[in-house]
Amino acid sequence: MLPYDRGRSTVLLISQFRYPAFVTGHSAPLIEACAGLLDANDPETAIRKEAEEELGYRLNGLRTIFSPYMSPGSVTERITLFIAEYSPTDRLSDGGGAVEEGEDIEIIEVPLDDTMKMVRDGRIIDAKTIILLQHLQLELLEGTP
Known about the structure:
145 residues, globular
């Protein structure tokens, strides 16, 4: 899920250590969109919960973008991608994830204009995050968000 502040043209991302990336040579924490497992919830309920835990924000205008398979040749995982609006007044807490789940998450507010530079220079390498950022950029170019 990618939260977007239309007034300030910023997005909220997270930074966290990812072991699979580490063992394949990426030692830095990954910068990515807020995400989580469904557990027993539907996708919208799950992402609202994750946004409050990880980001510390209550979401507004949550929109489902699409629900693609990320690697259909090898796994059955299908994800649901969302865009939501936020503003500083929607902040509920410091976020940072659920301590009992071992999460240690840093929240990063980034100007939208900087995000594509971050993709190009390799600071953002997470596929779902790249898809969401590109989708938001396209919507803004078309004037549709």
